[in-house]
Specification:
- Helix content is 43%, strand content 11%.
- It is built from 13 helices and nine strands.
- Helix 10 links the parallel strand 7 and strand 8.
- Strands 1-2-6-5-4-3-7-8-9 form a nine-stranded mixed β-sheet, with helices on both faces.
- Helix 7 runs parallel beside helix 8.
- It has 337 residues and is an alpha/beta fold.
- The N and C termini lie far apart (49 Å).
- It folds into two domains: 82 residues; 216 residues, 3-Layer(aba) Sandwich (Rossmann fold).
Length: 337
């Protein structure tokens, strides 16, 4: 049996040009006006323009309207059924499990539609992200697993991006302590496969797999960067274990540096392991601390993070403390990144 709203949101997601901002505009508009989502697909062009004035102007809005008209409903329905048959849930604005804070961040490119499989309750858990280099050092691997195990023992969910190195170590560290973890993919959820390293840990009930991409979309470096926004948006805080900086003197950021920078930009508390904790100092760690990330030590880093989060909950300090905000704005204004 087809869930009508699930299918309709997937249908809208399938329309060319309907990214996070557009879907957010559609949701807010139909929510405020009390319009059923299905009406969008039968509107005339003039009705569409009148109802959604924020969806671009002139040719852009016309292209948006035409994208809806061109949808191949039979093909979309087949894709939808494949998702359903594989136990994949479509999470959209307004549904019970949708994390409300995501809608507030769509202006940063945070997705409005998610594809999920596993323990869906983890979407709204108290989660902390652990991110780091794919080519991680031994020290980095140990710190990632240590932090992950400490977090789950304190009731936190560990969020990461499933890449090799630090990400995989964070997921593993959580599951080895029978804790929970959220895997945020940089490709379509139908392309996901469980790594052999997880065969001896409890998986069912302890993991949530999330993707914002087309279900059959392949991995790309661009998607890995885009995915960082969702990692940050789902997290109470982000921990950078080990990060590179810019590549070969160019303006191109390493993936982990991008994740840390995204946390600062979206005002998610950023914590960075002291660069001196490593034999080979991670240049990205040093720069992220200069930008406003809070330096932590391997021994007591988690306790420091929890102190900051407790202060935040009690309203003692803002999402970014004054030092973070000042440093980040100075660097933004200077155009360094």
């Amino acid at each position: 049996m087809t869930n009508k709203l699930d299918f309709l949101w997937y249908k809208l997601f399938s329309a060319e040009g309907f990214g996070p901002k557009s879907i957010s505009i559609v949701y807010n508009t139909i929510h405020n006006l009390g319009i059923p989502l299905e009406e969008i697909f039968v509107m005339s062009e003039s009705e569409f323009e009148k109802t959604f004035p924020e969806l671009g102007k002139g040719r852009l809005r016309k292209a948006t309207f035409e994208a809806i008209q061109k949808l191949n409903e039979e093909k979309i329905y087949q894709e939808y059924q494949e998702l359903k048959n594989n136990g994949i849930k479509i999470i959209y604005p307004g549904c019970q499990l949708y994390p409300v804070k995501l809608l507030e961040l769509t202006r940063y490119g945070v997705p409005a539609i998610l594809f999920c499989k596993g323990q869906l309750s983890l979407l709204n858990s108290e989660g902390v992200a652990i991110v780091g280099s794919r080519d991680a050092s031994e020290e980095g691997i140990k710190i990632a697993k240590k932090f992950a195990s400490e977090l789950v023992m304190l009731g936190k969910n560990v969020i990461s991006g499933y890449a090799k190195g630090i990400d995989t170590s964070a997921h593993l560290g959580a599951l080895e302590k029978d804790g929970t973890t959220t895997i945020v993919l940089s490709y379509g959820i139908m392309e996901f496969s469980k790594k052999k390293i997880f065969k001896n840990v409890r998986w069912e009930g302890n993991t949530l797999i999330v993707s914002q991409f087309r279900p059959r979309e392949k991995w790309s470096a661009r998607n890995a960067m885009i995915r960082n926004k969702l990692v940050c948006a789902l997290s109470e805080a982000v921990i950078v274990i080990e990060s590179g900086g810019k590549e070969n003197g160019s303006r191109k950021m390493s993936g982990t540096f991008n994740a840390g920078y995204t946390a600062l930009k979206t005002k998610v508390p950023l914590f960075v392991v002291n660069p001196a904790s490593f034999r080979n100092i991670p240049i990205g760690n040093k720069k992220l601390i200069e930008l406003g990330g809070i330096e932590i030590q391997p021994d007591d880093g988690i306790s420091e993070i929890l102190k900051h989060l407790e202060k935040k909950r009690n309203g003692i300090e803002s999402v970014m403390n004054e030092r973070q905000m000042s440093l980040f704005e100075q660097n933004q204004n200077g155009g360094k990144y």
